[in-house]
Design brief:
338 residues, alpha/beta, TIM Barrel, ten-stranded mixed beta sheet, disordered C terminus
Amino acid sequence: MQSPISRIEPQIAAKLSKQRYHLVGEHGGVKVCHWTKEELKNDRHCYKGTFYGIQSSGCMQMAPNVDTCNLACTYCWREPHSDTLNKIDDDPEMLFYESVRAHRRLLTGFKGHKDVPLEKWEEAQNPKHVAISLNGEPTLYSRLAEFLEICHDHGVSTFLVTNGSLPKVIENLDTLPTQLYVSVDAPNKQVFNKLCKPKFNDNSWEQLEKTLELLPSLDTRTVCRHTLIKNHSLGFYDDYARLDNMADPNFIEAKGYVYVGHSQNNHKITDMPTHDEIMEFSRTLAPLVGREVLADRSESRVSLIGKEMIPVVLPEQKRAFPKDLGIAKPQSFRLPQL
């Protein structure tokens, strides 16, 4: 099945391609994570390896819509998204296979590297985990449940990160991700509107609360992630505890804001909390939600709050990766003449 030509706006597509995104489908994209490279070369995994047993060298980072989001969060380090909400309905099987092909292309330079064992590189050709967290809001993809099912049928676990603004989409998913992350990056509506900046809907905070109320009924692993910004959203223990107790997630991640990328236009380097400040926040919040601090990774300024650490189990593989899948060729983009 041939991948369709990208319909991402040329200016956005050119910027993403320059940043080593490989664009797939009409609005999707793949990019190799820093930690995937680290585990291939130096046998160092990301915090998801410590917290959930994820092998970083087997992880593919992608999104079905790298150009579309309904929030304009000040702390987002990615490129700004389109000002319109595009219809995103790529064929999910095509999107999965084209993403794997793109992932393989992006890994070609590691074959033969003196620090990368050939066996580990070969294993990385067929990912065991898909992080649907690269860019954009994935619940805007109309065939998300089908995509998740195809991943699982290939024995691939899925981590889906959502801003929680579309609870009906999550409620109606026929197939749920292996682990569902909800970004709870503000303690109350006032801070939410200031930091998360809804673009199309004034009731995004209320929709987020509906998503949190929905979480206890979902038959999958759930996580509330707090991206904490010093001088803006760090603290507010009682407010965060109210939201976390509402959601009753399996895990809570407290992660420090990082002054990188596009977010540098909106924040200062002094808005980055230290790891000690993240740990102080975590130790204060944990008893308010009936949990404890289970682990942390200082280089990522992140902690895990929960009741017990339970590694992710890969889905049973029902379908093999096609032998002739090959490696994708990059799409080229030119800015329009002005």
